[in-house]
Q: What sequence folds into this?
């Protein structure tokens, strides 16, 4: 039995978090049409997971970085911070 390397464990976790983030965004757009605050909160949670996993995938990739990789490295923390800011500021908003 060979076991998993730390790189493989990290990649499996990244794909799982990206899948969960994508599922949250899809659920927000499909099932939460009437409750706007809940839809935005689900979108923000999904975006944090998606951008975080994409950022970590880019950083641990190990290969040479091109313009797209640098774009991801610069934009992902901004999007994560914006989504977290909105999550923290809507935590006690009434669910309409």
A:
């Amino acid at each position: 039995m060979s076991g998993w390397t730390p790189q493989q464990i990290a990649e499996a976790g990244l794909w799982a978090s990206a899948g969960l983030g994508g599922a949250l965004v899809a659920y927000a757009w499909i099932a939460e049409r009437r409750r706007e605050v809940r839809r935005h909160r689900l979108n923000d949670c999904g975006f944090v997971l998606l951008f975080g996993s994409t950022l970590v995938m880019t950083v641990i990739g190990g290969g040479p970085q091109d313009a797209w990789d640098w774009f991801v490295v610069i934009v992902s923390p901004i999007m994560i911070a914006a989504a977290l800011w909105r999550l923290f500021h809507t935590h006690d908003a009434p669910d309409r």
Observations:
- Residues 6-31 form the longest helix (26 residues).
- The chain has three helices and no strands.
- The mean pLDDT is 88.
- The two ends are 53 Å apart (CA to CA).
